[in-house]
Amino acid sequence: MLRTATTLAKLRARGVVAVRRIEDVIDLNYVGLVVATLFFALSVTPSLVPRDWIFQGLISGVNAALGYGLGCLLEWLHRTWIRPWVRRWILPRLRLWLPRFTFTAPPTRVEYAVKSAVLFACALSAGLMLVQSARWQREITALMGMEGTDTAAYLRTGLLSLSVGVVVVAVYRTVREIVLFLAHHLNRWVKVPRELAPTAGILVLVVLTVTLFNGVASRAFFAAANSAFSVRNDHNSPNAVQPRQPERSGSPQSLAKWETLGFEGRWFVSHGPSASRIAAVTGKPAREPIRAYIGLESAPEGGNQAQLAVDELERTGAFDRKVIVVVTTTGTGWVNSMAAGSIEYMYGGDTAVVASQYSYLPSALSFLADRGKAATAGRELFDAVYEHWSVRPEGQRPRLFVYGESLGSQGSEAAFDGLADLRAKVDGALWVGPPNSNRLWEQLISRRDPGSREVEPVYADGLVVRFAADSADLGRPATEWRTPRIAYLQHASDPIVWWSTDLIFSRPDWLSEPRGSDVSTQMRWWPFVTFWQVAADLTNAQGVADGHGHRYGSLVLDGWAAVAQPPDWNPELAEKVRFQLESAEDFERVTK
User: Fold this and answer.
1) How far is CA 83 from CA 14, 86, 362, 480, in A?
2) Which of 246, 351, 438, 515 lies at a CB distance of 3.0 to 4.6 Å from 434, suitable for a disulfide?
3) Which residues contact 282 (CB under 8 A, 6 or more apart)?
């Protein structure tokens, strides 16, 4: 017994020494640690799309750092305000009522034992939450028909989160030292009172940071990004070959030269169904589809891209076709081949699809840097086409449709003042995976019919606008859908649709109402945490199976069939076309 007691005493002593060394090295705040563990635990709860251990580790590390900072703030408030107030007002009254009451600090040994217990409890809690999180991730992957992760591999999340959290806290402490440095010199040289010097130091640092970020730093970052992605824009896929058909931009007869179309533009005009292919699939005569595309460098210096697009449509005889589709591209100039091919098969190639590039940057960076460019490009292109289209006699006009996906839907929406203006100018609109900041989409969602969910909204009883996550949704409600028809395709699990800065402080309706069919019932809203979770989901929005996240696949065909269906369209033909489009999409995914 004596030996056992001695051994336990030695272990306790070693634990105390270990805790002291940890404190000496990292200046650990235990209230911050507890809140950081809470934030970490909340961050590994389910989100919209499955996350592998790397993504989970990054987002959980940031969340834990935020929790640590909040805990440090609470501890400072307690030390600075609450403790003095208790000592001044509460303890004297307790001594009056309880004369023998005395308050003494616990022995050092007890203090360090409690701290050791806190460290152990936090580590154990984090480990147990990671085990449960692996189960949740398997549940989400099962909902999406994907292969799940194993628990052992997912435990790596903890180490990565710890590393990320340490880095974030280290950055904060560096900023704090800069503030103290500025405060010291403001007090010494500018004679700012010592009590106000830290606040003045923070203000100086904030002003310098904001000025730098909004000016030199932001311009330098986006200029560097633009330069980097322009290199890819100049690159050409070996599977993108200059077209010879005059109906394609980039052909020898085109006003938009092949080398100016950019990477995405060259791929767009060099692929797509030919007249012979359309005829073979549909069993009917077909025309060669028109694909007009204007790259960032296609217009002469000082020239107008939108006007060049109209000139290209005029050259190819697009205004004499049955259908014109005005597409607003994503950031890099990408056009969904499924969207273009669907309308071309449906109308036997008697179509014209026109698009223009407005940026070199991917949509994520374009959303930050070029969102205004997307709106301007979408408005200018549509206005130019509409102006030329509208002067033709009504009986001699092609049907006019608009299309946009992701950031492209936002740019396409910007061409119209509202729903009435949209319906007055077009024969239909199909918008896919709209960002939460889309103006018209947000207005329609906020005014949806009572009782309809945000993930499956019904607006005005489905009379003019419908929202769909699958083909069946396009037929609901079972009321008349008047022309011109407007359709939004949106998945309940698409983070691009549901991410918003409002998630920081307020719970959205889509987490207050019953969840979508592919969203875990265990997903909850937590301040700050859910915002970062869904923000991380943005990077993996397309890393899921078709029919989930930001992967809309051949649902785009169903959307076009609902919005712009020709008289001879039927289910058998739809399946033939679907097979061709999915095969082309698979080829693009592999060879592009």
Assistant:
1) 31, 5, 52, 67
2) 438
3) 345, 348, 573, 576, 577
Cα–Cα distance measured from residue 164 to residue 39, given in angstroms and rounded to the nearest whole number: 14
Answer whether 67's CB lies under 8 Å from 38's CB: yes
Pull the structure tokens for residue 312: 């290209």
The C-alpha angle 582, 551, 496, rounded to 5 degrees, equals 155
Report how far residue 344's alpha carbon sits from residue 290's, in angstroms, rounded to the nearest whole number: 9
- Give CA–CA dist 301/92, Å, rounded: 81
Give the global pTM.
0.84
Residue with token string 């690159």: 235
For residue 178, what are its two tokens?
């800069």
CB-based contacts of 506, cutoff 8 Å, min separation 6: none
Structure tokens at 360: 């070199």
Angle between helices 156-189 and 197-212 (to 10 degrees): 120
Nearest to 516 by CA among 446, 447, 456, 586: 456
First to last CA, the chain: 74
pLDDT digits (tens, 9 = 90+) for 28-85: 888 999 999 999 999 999 999 998 888 889 889 988 988 988 888 888 888 888 777 7
Q: Is 2 exposed, middle or buried (0-12, 13-18, 19+ CB in 10 A)?
A: exposed
Q: E strands, 250-397, where? A: 290-294, 323-328, 351-356
